[in-house]
Amino acid sequence: MKKAILAALALVCVLACNNRAPERMVMARAVPERADDFVFENDLIAGRFYGKALEGNPTSPGVDVWVKLPGRLVADEWYDHAVNEDPKYYHRDHGGKDCYKVAVSLGGGASAPYLDGKLCFPATNYRSYEILEDTLTRVRFALEYPEWEAAEGITVSLRKEVTLSAGSYFADVADYYTFTGTETLRIAAGVKLHDVEKTCRGEGRFAIWEHASDQSVEPEDGMLGLAVIGQNGGVEGIVEDEGSGHMLVYGSVRSGEPFRYSFGSCWSKGNIKTADDWFALAGRQ
């Protein structure tokens, strides 16, 4: 009888393990407890956009890239430690970290109007958000940037829609610019360049391999891969803008039409170890 009971309990355990709920592999949420950040993450990459509470420190549309080891979601854990224990927690290596410097820039893959050879950043950080899709393996969200004057006589607002799927080093973006004062608007999506080791350009795309740019808390010996890839033939050209220190892909849209592209990142301490590996992956997207 005792053996039978033990066998039954073992069977229950096996069935419970085999029927456990699937693990979530993507997430995106506002982080009001940390200066209105908006964080996104899958099993391979993570990052954030800056919100209202951080305006002035900085006011920036840029993507802040977080590097991490592949396999699990870590952003909520990092924020919890940062809010409750050490504000610089996610700047220290816990199987990943924030070692990328955004400041006032496009960071690791945002966009902005590009007029007369100048990036025209929003006057605020994102002011509202919407979760459009949320499953275990795919999330889609929108961020709203209120109207600002991009140039004399040209007012612009932005609705940024980002889609992130499990198992991908890239997020897909549709940036909807609504504007007055001009029939079409040139938009550039790109990456702020830091200590770059290698660069690769292709048709409507580029990829960067650079050293960590934020080492203010602790040294970082890993390398970062960054890339921007234009979608649907909407890229008119690629330029390295020396004035702003960005690599950019650019194209033109009418008011309300999307400018579509993807941005991606990797860390040399993860699965992608070399620039050539990263460039090959970016070339296949």
Question: Might you state the CATH topology name?
Answer: Beta-galactosidase, Chain A, domain 5
Strand order of the largest sheet: 8-9-10-11-18-15-14-13
Tell me about the largest β-sheet: 8 strands, antiparallel
- Unreliable stretches (pLDDT < 50, length at least 5) are 1-16
What is the overall shape?
globular
Domain module tally: 1
Helix content: 10-25%
Radius of gyration: 21 Å
Note the gap between the termini. Answer: 60 Å
In short:
Helix content is 13%, strand content 46%. With 285 residues, the chain is mainly beta.
Key descriptive features of the protein:
single chain, 285 residues, mainly beta, Beta-galactosidase, Chain A, domain 5, eight-stranded antiparallel beta sheet, five-stranded antiparallel beta sheet, 18 strands, 46% strand, globular, disordered N terminus
Textual characterization of the structure:
The chain has about 280 residues and is mainly beta. The protein has one domain: Beta-galactosidase, Chain A, domain 5 (Distorted Sandwich), CATH 2.70.98. Helix content is about 15%, strand content about 45%. It is built from 3 helices and 18 strands. The protein has helices spanning about 1-20, 75-85, 275-285, and strands at about 25-30, 35-40, 45-50, 65-70, 95, 110-115, 120, 130-135, 140-150, 155-165, 170-180, 185-190, 195-200, 205-210, 225-230, 235-240, 245-255, 260-265. The strands form 3 sheets. An 8-stranded antiparallel beta sheet has the order 8-9-10-11-18-15-14-13, covered by helices on one side. Strand 13 and strand 14 form a beta hairpin. The radius of gyration is 21 Å and the shape is globular.
